[in-house]
TrEMBL record, chains A, B:
The keyword Transferase applies. It holds the Pfam family Aminotran_4. SUPFAM superfamilies: D-aminoacid aminotransferase-like PLP-dependent enzymes (SSF56752). GO terms for biological process: amino acid biosynthetic process; branched-chain amino acid biosynthetic process. The modification N6-(pyridoxal phosphate)lysine is found at residue 197. It comes from Flavobacterium caseinilyticum. The keyword Transferase applies. PROSITE patterns: AA_TRANSFER_CLASS_4 (PS00770). Gene3D superfamilies: 3.30.470.10, D-amino Acid Aminotransferase, subunit A, domain 2. Belongs to the class-IV pyridoxal-phosphate-dependent aminotransferase family. This is Branched-chain-amino-acid aminotransferase. It catalyses: L-leucine + 2-oxoglutarate = 4-methyl-2-oxopentanoate + L-glutamate; L-isoleucine + 2-oxoglutarate = (S)-3-methyl-2-oxopentanoate + L-glutamate; L-valine + 2-oxoglutarate = 3-methyl-2-oxobutanoate + L-glutamate. Keywords: Amino-acid biosynthesis, Aminotransferase, Branched-chain amino acid biosynthesis, Pyridoxal phosphate, Transferase. Its EC number is 2.6.1.42.
Amino acid sequence: MSTTQTNKFEIIKASTSKINEVDFENLSFGSVFTDHLLECDYTNGQWQKPVIKPYAPFLLDPSVRVFHYGQAIFEGMKAYKDDDEALWLFRPDENYKRFNNSAVRMAMPEVPEEVFIEGLNQLLQLDEAWVKKGKGNTLYIRPFMIATGTGVIASPSNDYKFMIILSPAKSYYSGEVKVLIAEHYSRAANGGIGAAKAAGNYGAQFYPTSLANKEGFQQVIWTDDATHTKLEEAGTMNVFFRINDTLLTAPVSERILDGITRKSLIDIAEKEGIDVQIRPVLVSELVEASKNGTLKEIFGAGTAAVVNPIVGFSYQDVYYELPKTEDSMALRLKDMLTNIQHKLAEDTFGWTVKV
Amino acid sequence: MSTTQTNKFEIIKASTSKINEVDFENLSFGSVFTDHLLECDYTNGQWQKPVIKPYAPFLLDPSVRVFHYGQAIFEGMKAYKDDDEALWLFRPDENYKRFNNSAVRMAMPEVPEEVFIEGLNQLLQLDEAWVKKGKGNTLYIRPFMIATGTGVIASPSNDYKFMIILSPAKSYYSGEVKVLIAEHYSRAANGGIGAAKAAGNYGAQFYPTSLANKEGFQQVIWTDDATHTKLEEAGTMNVFFRINDTLLTAPVSERILDGITRKSLIDIAEKEGIDVQIRPVLVSELVEASKNGTLKEIFGAGTAAVVNPIVGFSYQDVYYELPKTEDSMALRLKDMLTNIQHKLAEDTFGWTVKV
Ligand SMILES: Cc1ncc(COP(=O)(O)O)c(C=O)c1O
Ligand SMILES: Cc1ncc(COP(=O)(O)O)c(C=O)c1O
């Protein structure tokens, strides 16, 4: 291992790379990590010098607050290589802003831009061989922060650890996705933490999702917890509904994550002249549109899967199958978005940022 | 260190004890831990042999799911010593049941009774010198479970770690507690995880509680997230309201933790002939009762503080002060409960269990 000190970062290079052990054609999402990670500790009311170092386990006291009180947030973003082997990020400023919004909501310190953005750039340069070019290939980026202060008392931690880890990812075809519309369980409360990428929001969904899985549905579309009449979002994706040629999606709120894929797709669709309506979408509308044949498509939108077409939904024990479409809006928008991300189409929005 | 193997447990004793370094008269809650902890890992679909060993930090991979998806639950219970130095637990079966209910809701494996209950007994015997006799002294017990499986994909972990750590605690007087009634933020959703002791429920409250702190309120009383008209519970306590000589408390629900202190106080109060009403309590009722002088007391009930009298509440920017009472129901019930716990009164309910 070799250590470099700059003004801003300490960089400890791994003596060997694991890259040759990795089968880049058969990657299971989120399971393989690159050689290095970024780590930055918050202690005594201050962020310490960030360190880039070999990916490895680390020690925690059994009483750290992330275990007991769930002070933990994360982001999910991707890096892409173009045909000239240049490395790109997609709207990293949006992830950075959202991360700090999540931090505030979870009573955690905001991370400085030079740690998050510059740190990420440094880390990516070091592990850039892990990003393969070609439209199916990306590097999934996982910034996260956990409370590392000790003591089993339900109050905010004084100490935190911010990390960025990197995982090479193939764009995946997740098979036919059927969804269940939530009638009892829910994801977020009014005045709760649904709009934050807080760890606790995800574990909370595993049990109701497993019940849906048992009935043959891969995902749940969550509804508002008070009335279960409004369609909100899926586990890790915002949701779009195409009725005739209009695209509908719920407005973001304190219950719904402000997805970057969602807002990018809205911009692309509007630029394409598609009628996009951002308004509460009722379950009853969806059922009605399915019955009268105007419901053409449903799809999820999120960084991991980009766009995930849904083949049908179940509500009150009735399964509604969607028609096969020749001319899928989901796939057309997905193609336009991934072309921008991989620098295969002009980025008129100014979303892509070179590493 | 000496190691003992029994059929069921591996016991590794610390070579020296930290007990002489501890000032038992000046303990800050939840910050000092005893010499040993219990650890039991779940891998390959099975609970492994539990180990009792010296309290120490342990290694975790940066991608473990407790960091990213908040699969983490806990319990809070206490051990007491009577005047003959015998060690007692209070309704441990209730904590055990609730722990496994939390596990199911968070898609985590249930912990076997011999690990949780027998393990706790073994651990307490080893560290029994840390429990001091006398009514103000207790040992706070923190069983918890975290997801230790690696991989940043939002699905349940395959691996888990169950632990029990112990912290000596003085009964505390937390000063005058003023509370704020929640009008915007909330703790739990309908169909959410509010009834589980899931880590994510607590971190979610820190920010709104810090806003209340800034206005001079130590705690928030949460209301239902849909209408904010019903009084639910405080951060780590259920809440009771005394109107004239009637004691009111909200029914437990999927939004409210089924507190063991709460249900024990209800039983004691009923035995004392107090009129107890378990029904939704409206904020408007509370305000009305305060205005017309029938509101006599409000108090929180939970394992840590036992009973926490509240001196006043704020709602819609109006502060309602409670009258000073000579004859406090809160303190009377607290005394009866702690007398049972410390074996100073006959336990006609059969709640106390010898270690
Ligand atoms: C709950 C939730 N909704 C939606 C999304 C989609 O957001 P983005 O498009 O920014 O990845 C995510 C994250 O990936 C999410 O976790
Ligand atoms: C949210 C919440 N409510 C109420 C309580 C009180 O429960 P118990 O009396 O079992 O300690 C607790 C735990 O201590 C809690 O965390």
